[in-house]
Amino acid sequence: MQSYLLPLTALFNKNANPAQAAPMKKYMRDQFEYLGITTPQLKALSKEFIEQYGLPPVSELDLIVHDLWELPQREFQYLAVGFTEHLVDQLPANYIRAIEYMITYKSWWDTVDSIAGDTVGPHFRRFPGVRAKYLAKWRASDNFWLRRTTILFQLGYKKETDFELLCEIIRENLNSKEFFINKAIGWSLRQYARVEPKAVKKFVKDTPLHPLSRREAMKHLE
Hints:
single chain, mainly alpha, Leucine-rich Repeat Variant
């Protein structure tokens, strides 16, 4: 384990709450172990740690993220996602490999969605070449978390959203029976409807969307 993480893991283990850990684990369908640290507590402890030790060096972030991802308790994966978001404007282009690792290992919506909107989105803006290569790769992947990421990465783009691209990716996933794909389609359309409601209404009308996607897309338009 990287030396930077030793006081961090000690701090979090010290604040573990087994009574809270059990319901948190159950909420995530028993997929992950938990220390029992709630989101407000995690934010407070992270702030305390960063004030004392600073953010991790960008040059070591890849190794730090992998170490955090290997730990069994889910809070450590949340820390890895948070560190990456804090440093997103400093990440080198090749950090996309670490991002892909975070999406494809210990995958669930609680990490993937944050990574998609808050890390992949800005990273693709900064590195068009990375975007072109990995977007093509992820769109064709059998891993639905990668495909979900391609649907969601523009969530924060607002007026800069490439709606034509989004529509293309949605059409590629129209036959999916995966809940997390159909939910993402609806979410992405609902978000863009804040900018261009007429365009979204027309697309929904003209496209044989899954009922879940249609319902989510039209939630604030009907």
